């Protein structure tokens, strides 16, 4: 049976194994232990010309993008948590920038075949994510694909 973040609430156990049910917000809701929080999925941006940010870090000007690094960290956090006896499934959303019409032309004319093959290989073989959501383009010219790879 697959284990999800909903199977055992983050507030049920502290990192040290103690019960945190006595930690309540002012509204009486349990407060999760931030050390035990594991995301269901992560988001990363890349571009079709370089594919930076997938299996190697890159900074496009808004901070470091690095899917493999973030996924490994999230999965290690789940393994190190006292709540889990095995890693949780962590998904990945990839925002793929095509560089406008020029990038689309380059793809159609075969100039980026090696990058397309690398992306497909990454998603199908090397990416540690359990599920992948691929968003191609931005705004009204966006195509979204949900991929389940095993």
Structural notes for this entry:
The chain has 150 residues and is an alpha/beta fold. It has one domain (34-147). It has 3 helices and 6 strands; from the N terminus they run βββαβααββ. The chain has helices spanning 67-80, 100-108, 113-126, and strands at residues 41-47, 58-59, 64-65, 91-97, 132-136, 143-147. A 4-stranded mixed β-sheet has the order 1-4-5-6, covered by helices on one side. Strand 5 (132-136) and strand 6 form a beta hairpin. The chain is elongated, with a radius of gyration of 19 Å. Mean pLDDT is 76; it is low at 1-21 and 82-86.
Strand content: 15-25%
Largest sheet: 4 strands, mixed
> What does the average pLDDT come to?
76
Count of domains: 1
Any idea what the shape is?
Answer: elongated
> Strands of the largest sheet, in order across it?
1-4-5-6
Helix percentage: 10-25%
Element-level helix/strand string: EEEHEHHEE
> What is the count of β-strands?
6
Q: Tell me the number of helical segments per DSSP (H or I, 4 or more residues long).
A: 3
Q: If you compute it from the alpha carbons, what radius of gyration comes out, rounded to the nearest whole angstrom? A: 19 Å
The low-confidence parts are: 1-21, 82-86
What is the first-to-last residue Cα distance?
A: 15 Å
The chain-level structural class is: alpha/beta
């Amino acid at each position: 049976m697959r284990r999800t973040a909903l199977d055992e609430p983050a507030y049920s156990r502290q990192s040290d194994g103690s019960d945190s049910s006595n930690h309540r917000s002012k509204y009486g809701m349990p407060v999760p232990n931030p050390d035990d929080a594991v995301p269901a999925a992560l988001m990363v941006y890349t571009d079709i010309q370089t594919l930076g940010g997938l299996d190697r870090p890159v900074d496009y000007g808004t901070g470091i993008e690095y899917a493999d690094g973030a996924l490994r960290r999230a999965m290690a956090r789940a393994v190190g948590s006292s709540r889990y006896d095995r890693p949780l499934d962590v998904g990945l959303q990839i925002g793929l920038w095509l560089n406008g019409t020029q990038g689309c032309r380059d793809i159609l004319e075969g100039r980026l075949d090696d990058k397309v093959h690398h992306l497909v290989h990454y998603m199908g073989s090397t990416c540690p994510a359990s599920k992948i959501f691929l968003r191609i383009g931005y705004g009204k010219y966006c195509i979204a694909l949900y991929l389940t790879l095993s």
